[in-house]
Amino acid sequence: MATTVQQVYDPGIWHISYWELTIRLVAALALGGLVGLERELGGHSAGFRTHILVCVGSAAIVLLSIYGFAEFSTDPNVRLDPARLAAQVISGIGFLGAGTILRTGLTVSGLTTAASLWVVAAIGLTVGAGFYYGSAVLTVLVVVSLFVLNKLEKKFSRTKRKRDLVLRVNKDSASLSKVVTELHRHGIGINKIIVENEEADTCDRDDMLIVRLQLKLGQTKHFEEVIVSLAAIEGVLGLEAGVESL
Questions:
Q1: pTM exceeding the 0.85 threshold for the entire prediction
Q2: Helix H segments across the chain?
Q3: Secondary structure letter of residue 7 according to DSSP
Q4: What is the pLDDT of residue 26?
Q5: Cα–Cα distance between 230 and 41 in angstroms, integer?
Q6: Disulfide engineering: 165 pairs with which of 21, 99, 110, 213, CB 3.0-4.6 Å?
Q7: Is residue 130 left, alpha or beta, with left meaning phi > 0 and alpha meaning psi from -120 to 50?
Q8: Contact at 8 Å (CB) between 83 and 98?
């Protein structure tokens, strides 16, 4: 004879103690700050406080989504969905991450910081939901990826180092060819080159060219000396070097 098991509804699952709520928010602060610390030490735009705010905010939102409407849990006309607000965090955090992606000249930077903001939001959601083990493992993996793997990437990617260089040269001189020759003499390759003539709005003089170069540094260790030698070339009116990137 078949028996049926009657499930007893427990409204207590929609309630959380103040102590547990505090623990979850503090844990989100600590784990998010751990990821943000690595970004802060690296001098990135979104650093320690930004990651803390994202992580704690995500935890608070998922806590609100699960426990914030407990007073309506006994209403037969209300159907609670604990994942509804949390789902909006995953899509909404993309707008904040997009703000950290910058394009400077020929180089795009900030992609890793944008990704770290997205994953730290996930950490906040897991902590807020009480998934402590998963949040701890996720934080460890993120910190290892950002810190340890970053060191390894720099070690094995020295030949991929890039640098942006903007030159202002005399249009009627042979300075551009001399610049290219000097760069090759130091073992520096050119990935991209953009030349703006006197009709460009960024030019200040009719006899001047603006040349934008993306350089492949390779094993070059003394790039500052290369800059000095380029500045000494006749016909070079000015130059500006961007930050190094991979």
A1: no
A2: 18-41, 48-67, 84-98, 111-128, 132-143, 149-156, 175-185, 223-231
A3: P
A4: 92
A5: 32
A6: 213
A7: left
A8: no
Residue with more model confidence, 202 or 116: 116
Task: Examine the pLDDT at 123 and tell me if it is beyond 80.
Answer: yes
Over residues 9-37, the pLDDT tens digits come to 566 677 788 898 889 899 999 998 888 88
Residue keyed to tokens 């994953």: 119
Tokens at residue 79, please? 């159907």
SS (H, E, C) 68-130: CCHHHCCCCCCCCCCCHHHHHHHHHHHHHHHCCCEEECCEEECHHHHHHHHHHHHHHHHHHCC
The mean per-residue pLDDT over the stretch 126-149 comes to: 85
In sequence order, what are the beta bridge partners of 102?
109
Structure token digits, residue 221: 């260790």
Write down all domains in the chain, each with its CATH number in brackets.
11-155 (no CATH), 158-245 (3.30.70.260)
